[in-house]
Amino acid sequence: MELYDWNSLQPKEQADLLKRPALLNDLQLQKRVSEIIKQVQLDGDRALISLTKELDSVSLSNLSVSFEEIKQAEASLGSADKHAIQEAAANITRFHQTQLPKPIAVETTPGVYCERITRAIPDVGLYVPAGNAPLPSTALMLGIPAMLAGCSRVILCSPPQADGMINSAVLYAAQICNISVIFKVGGAQAIAAMAYGTESIPKVSKLFGPGNTWVTAAKAQAAQDPMGAARDMPAGPSEIMVIADEEANPTFVASDLLSQAEHGPDSQVMLISTSQEFLFAVMKEVEQQQQNLSRRTIIQQSLKSSRAILVDHLDTALLVANKYAPEHLMLQVKEPRAALEKVQAAGSVFLGPWAPESIGDYCSGTNHVLPTYGFARSHSGLGVTDFLRSMTVQTLTSEGLQKIGGIAERLADLEGLDAHRQAVRLRLETLESSGRSKSNEN
Is residue 379 flagged as an active site residue? Predict the structure, then answer.
């Protein structure tokens, strides 16, 4: 990690300092992803089997995960492993249950009733990546909110291992979420299969889950196609920003930085402090701790685009954080709750020395599918509402229409939309005529 003094930099230099590693998102990648999507659309399962052999070096005869394979996966896991997955699932469920929206009903004007109701998206596709490591936690983070939302069809795709099977922990996590329709396919081809459907894999309305640049590009292309499928959010390479003062523990902070650096070579970790001495202490710890880590080669690549930034004040650090809009933001400062008040853009925030980011990844209960690459400025982390859609309902009595019909007529006149005005006027005239008739009868 290189150290930079924020206040000594010019505005352009400051902006350059906060740039993410360049994504492999050039025209060649976009073209290849488009070709993969078209290949899957044309050849269906046959394309998926061919692409899995070409890109993953795995030969498959059947894309579906059988009931027997799911049971074998459960049997292969130790009781401690299953208990950990179960406990994580329980916490995730507790937190996400609170997100279920309640119906809204308001009488805006006497006789005018407006409602907002929700319905589950009926068919959703979950993608659990496995390029660098199997991620049973991601299966929980996607499957639990889908289950709570009440989605009637949930399918899951994950890349096969060298033996042609999906990781046992991933399958067990999916089983806990009541997901039994699972397919051994990964990458852009998995996204294409769920977005458009094949002989084996049903088409879905919305895609969920993180992934590499190929997966992210495929989700973006499918979301732009009316015949494809919507997506959850831009979720790419992992990133973390830690704001720490001189009272923070450099050993803890270094471990948090390394926990995200090990995700992949295109991950980015950022450290900000008001103390240069502290920054040097953390950088030393980073160097020492990584020596004993199994993914050291990946970490070293990630650290090449990581930064240690010296600022003059905590407020400056928070300003930098809001500019960067990190996926994960850790506040290792004396009064983290007070600092949180000034945080405007982050995917998930971790307060104080006893809240490692790893806990959020696994078992605190919050969701770890979060916007990256600065999209936290405009996107939220995944929640139950992402698996729902809402619609409004309005009911008017005749008296209610008479009270506000004139307003609608006037606005229609302002916009020059005669048919809009006529739809109201005909009803009002009917009511007026009915009223006159009753008056004449009297």
Answer: no
CATH, residue 246? 3.40.50.1980
Q: Domain range spanning residue 241?
A: 2-23+237-365
Provide the pairing of β-strand 348-351 with 307-310: unpaired
Q: Is 327 a catalytic residue?
A: yes
Are 226 and 265 found together in one domain? no
Q: What is the pLDDT of residue 440?
A: 56
- Identified catalytic residue from 239, 262, 285, 327: 327
CA distance 440 to 417: 35
Q: Is the pLDDT of residue 438 over 70?
A: no
Asked if residue 373 belongs to a domain, the reply is no
Domain total in the chain: 3
Given a cut of 50, whether residue 442 has pLDDT beyond it is no
Instruction: Check whether residue 95 and residue 16 sit in a common domain.
Output: no
Phi, psi (rounded to 5 degrees) for 168:
-60, -40
Residues 6+ apart with CB under 8 A from 366: 95, 348, 360, 381
CA torsion sign for 428, 431, 435, 440 is positive
- Across the strands, what pairs with 119? 389
Residue type, 305: S
Q: What is the dihedral of CA 88, 355, 97, 321, to 10 degrees?
A: -130
Task: Write down the pLDDT at residue 28.
Answer: 85
Q: What is the mean pLDDT of residues 256-267?
A: 92
* Mean pLDDT within 191-195: 98
Q: Is residue 265 part of a domain?
A: yes
Buried b (16+ CB within 10 A) or exposed e, 248-258: bebebbbbbbb
| Cα–Cα distance for residue pair 395/381, rounded to 1 Å | 34
Give the containing element (helix H, strand E) for 399. Answer: helix 398-415
Q: 365, 383, 418: which is the final residue of a domain? A: 365
What is the reported pTM?
A: 0.92
Going from the C-alpha of 409 to that of each of 109, 393, 397, 423, the distances in angstroms are: 17, 21, 17, 9
Catalytic residue among 96, 263, 328, 379: 328
pLDDT of residue 434: 84
The string of pLDDT tens digits covering residues 305-352 is 899 999 999 999 999 999 999 999 999 999 999 999 999 999 999 999
- Whether 72 and 173 map to the same domain: the answer is yes
Structural domain contains residue 72: yes
Residue 209 included in any domain: yes
Cα separation, 362 vs 10, in Å, equals 39
Cβ(377)–Cβ(325) under 8 Å? Answer: yes
Residue 237: predicted pLDDT: 81
